[in-house]
Amino acid sequence: MPRLSYRKALTRALADEMARDESVFLLGEDIRVAASNVTAGLLKRFGPDRVVDTPLSEQAFTSFATGAALAGLRPVVEFQIPSLLFLVFEQIVNHAHKFPLMTGGQAEVPVTYLVPGSGSRTGWAGQHSDHPYSLFAHVGVTTVVPATPADAYGLLVSAIRHVDPVVVFAPAGAMDVRADVDFAALAPVPIGRGRVHRAGDDVTVVAVGHLVHDALAVAEELADQVSVEVFDPRTLYPFDWDGLTASVARTGRLVVVDDSNRSCGIAGEIIATVVERVRLLAPPRRVTRPDGAVLPFAPALDRAVQPGREQLTAAIQLTMKDE
Amino acid sequence: MTRDDPVRLYRTVRLIRRFEERAVDLVRAGAIVGGIHPYLGQEGIAAGVCAALRDDDLVTGTHRGHGHVLAKGADPARMLAELLGRETGLNRGRGGSMHAADLAVGVLGANAIVGAAGAILTGAVWARRRRGDDLVGATFFGDGAVNEGMLLEAFNLAALWRVPVLFVCENNGYATTMPVEGAVAGTIPGRAEAFGMPAAVVDGQDPEAVRDATAAAVARMRAGGGPELIEARTYRFDAHHTFEHAVRLDYRAPQEVAAGRSRDPVEIQGARLSGVDRAAVDADVEATLDAALEFALASPEPDPAGALAHLYASGLVARTGGG
Ligand SMILES: Cc1ncc(C[n+]2csc(CCOP(=O)(O)OP(=O)(O)O)c2C)c(N)n1
Ligand SMILES: [Mg+2]
């Protein structure tokens, strides 16, 4: 089977949707030359009217996309840096997200916000290494964090077709993942549907984005001690609570690994919801960035504040010891 | 009778005037909750600008937005129902005074984040034009908004991409209590000129002067010109917000208020009509507003079970309870 990289999967999704639907167009900084490499080849194929380079005006072009969506187009807005989402939180939350309710259903805002390389890129330090997906889940903006090339393709396609705003986080830690993919089988992945990557009996590990790959590696390492099920929610909002509940109802134990800051991160919400629904055999655990973390520059420090495999291993073992 | 007929222009300013006076009374009576930002004294701007627009042209309004919505052609009865939070309101009671929207008449919403709407309108006009519609847009904002970076970013995008948007600054001398002289370095037209946009200063108390300035700008824009700015000098006759009726704020000298109120757009336009015509319009406006109030008061309040209806165009139902 051919290999497909995560990055190429995103490109392919953009190209397929632009070919399928005239109303889809791209907006962003340096996307014509594809500085992030995600829009590579699209200018040549679709022309400058549909691959629109913007000045450095994130707030204006984010709301410009809202207006274009109100007028019937389907913009995909690329952000060069995950931390820029703090700059446009206003435009996404106060306007794009609120228009349908505030207008009493008169408005639809089908915009996709694509964030290639979210989270740490190693060595990019404080203002380039954030992973603010929990914030968008908190305010109720549809939020997806694909882990694999096929899911990156399928979720980006679904995001573009969705009638509400969707933020697509493509973690830096997943961008170089490659997988064997049957191109004919590439398809939209439904928003709000999780996926069990590895079945297990003793503990459910919920892993977000690139951490799915760490969770799978840890599960293999521990395979002779504990049977780990790895659940990838894929969409953080709306979350696949039924899928996760079914998994934890079988295993009885829960560990969450999430690249958010701990306070008010999605891991807290996942644990709270599961304990509202399932009587666990042991206290749940979460592996996250520390409270209020700002990623420091030096590589060892950068790694130290991100959730890692050792912490995940320890959390699983602790959960297995507790009764 | 043409759309920019003097009688018709008078009717619009008179309608907004009486609508606002009645709305203030309804606030005092406790029927409108949350208060309003009265447009009293500024009627000539919305009326004059919209008189020079076509039905399919697009506008955005502000927190002081009743005049913009009414002048563009929204039904006063449904507007009043919106202020009263009724299911029959323009926004089905989900928007209220500050978010009133009527997409059917080209109002992409009053918008309560100062300086935010310009970029949205720019995107909407750009999108509609690339789909082949030759419409233009007008976005209203106050003197306070000219110090918001996001609006200046929108100036740049509109000018750079030659999007035919008329930026209409309603300079009423104050942003809440902050006088223009204390807030604006340089000049308001100077901001437009910095982006290569033509800019004009017009007497906002004279509806015909506003209409003529708008018509000239719109004619240039329809002939292929880029965006323009109009600074309409005006005076707010009443409070920044009706909360001021209860809490006296000391920032405008009584002599200044009296001088400002002496140039009344309703009187200025009314003097252009015969006494008979004027009396007929006044009677018609009262009858319209009597019927509007009757309609609004007889309308049902929204069912709380549907409080979050329209939160998502996709129909997603937000999780409201635990678990
Ligand atoms: C971005 C933003 N900052 C502050 C406010 C609070 N606020 C509402 S209206 C207003 C004054 C706006 O002044 P101006 O733009 O001159 O409009 P006017 O009220 O005079 O019509 C302020 C500060 C807001 N709504 N949005
Ligand atoms: Mg003002």
From TrEMBL, chain A:
InterPro entries: THDP-binding, Transketo_C/PFOR_II, Transketolase-like_Pyr-bd, Transketolase_C
SUPFAM superfamilies: Thiamin diphosphate-binding fold (THDP-binding), TK C-terminal domain-like
Positions of the Transketolase-like pyrimidine-binding domain: 4-177
One Pfam entry name: Transketolase_C
Cofactor names: thiamine diphosphate
Record keywords: Oxidoreductase, Pyruvate, Thiamine pyrophosphate
Gene3D superfamilies per record: 3.40.50.920, 3.40.50.970
MF GO annotations: magnesium ion binding; oxidoreductase activity
Protein name, UniProt field: Pyruvate dehydrogenase E1 component beta subunit
Taxonomic source organism: Micromonospora haikouensis
Lineage of producing organism: Bacteria, Bacillati, Actinomycetota, Actinomycetes, Micromonosporales
Automatic annotation (TrEMBL), chain B:
Transmembrane segments: 103-127
Cofactor(s) for this UniProt protein: thiamine diphosphate
Chain coiled-coil ranges: none
InterPro entries the UniProt entry points to: DH_E1, PDH_E1_Alpha_Subunit, THDP-binding
Keyword Transmembrane helix attached: yes
Domain of life: Bacteria
GO BP annotation list: pyruvate decarboxylation to acetyl-CoA
Pfam families assigned: E1_dh (PF00676)
Name the UniProt record assigns to this protein: Pyruvate dehydrogenase E1 component alpha subunit
